[in-house]
Structure formats: C-alpha cells, structure tokens
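Chapter summary example.
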Amino acid sequence: MSSAASPLGPADLAPGRLLLATPGLLDPNFADTVVLLLDVNDDGALGVVLNRPTALPVSAVLGEWGDVVEEPEVLFQGGPVSTDGALAVALAAPGGEHAAGFQRLWGRVGLLDLDTPHELVAGTVDRLRIFAGYAGWGAGQLEAEVAEGTWYVVPAEPDDAFGEEAGGLWRRVLRRQPGDLAFHATRPADPDLN
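The structure predicted for these 194 residues follows.
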C-alpha cells in the first residue's frame, strides 16, 4: 500500500485517532472495524472498536448507566481483550472536563470511571457509550501493522464514538477523508464482483 493512500502513518498514532481496517485485514476480531485509540505509549496501544454493538442492554449489566448511554442503549464489543470488563467513553459537557471520574483524552472526549457515583456525573457528560473489552497492541506492534498497510489512520470526530448507525461508520469515516482514501468507501466487499 502506498503512503499516498493514508494521510497519517505510524508516527501519527495518538489518542483521538481512528484505525480503519483495510480490506486486507481478515482477522475476524478486526475485519471491517473502526477502532478509536485511547492510549498510545512506548509500551503499546489501547483502543475500542466503535462499530460492533451487542444485543445486551447496558441496564442489564450496569443498572442506572443504561439510562445515560447513547442510543442504542446496548454494550458495544470494544475488542477481544478483557471482555468481562467495561470502558466508558464520554463527551464531557462544556466545562465538565475536570468532573469527578472523567479523564480527558482529547477535546472534550475522555474516559469515564464507572465506579464514580452516578449523581456526581449527572450534568457533566453530554454523551456516553460503554464498551465490553478493548483492543490492545504490544510495543511497536501497531506501528508495524500500520506500516504494512493493515490500518488506515485518520483523525476522529466526537460523533464517531457516539453515533446511532454503527454499521455504516467505516464507510462514513472514509467518505470524509481527503484524496484517494475517500474512494475506498465505495469499494465492493469483493472487488471481483465489480
């Protein structure tokens, strides 16, 4: 894959970037996924898959948090690692970036500690989505995958993490990219059928 196909590369990996699985990524854990990077450091990277809703209502597992999450009010499969744990990605209300339990990642987007009493969070968060599990990479692993063309790396927008139509997210994100990368949004799943 030529470097002209992706506006960002391994050096651009940071919280607030999206990883879009390229058509060549066949691993069932990541095929057709959009991953929001939450942390990137010398030890590796961590993110959550944004476009894999489950059928399990948040309220069935986390009680009152089900009243706060975005539609659909279900857990999302954040990745294959630690699927018995939950990560909450939130959009802080203006001025809520320093609220109890909120750890800012970029802009007003951050992680919300689900152990924070619900009443301390009320009014400080505009949007919330909860993910079961996460995607993780060891030191240098994600950089190598990006360099070999496994992922497109693009900037995230806050709505990417909270939109209702998760199924079309991969194509919507690609369509808004500059240059040749946007053309990949119209590529058929099987190019031989074109």
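To summarize the output: The longest strand covers residues 125-138.
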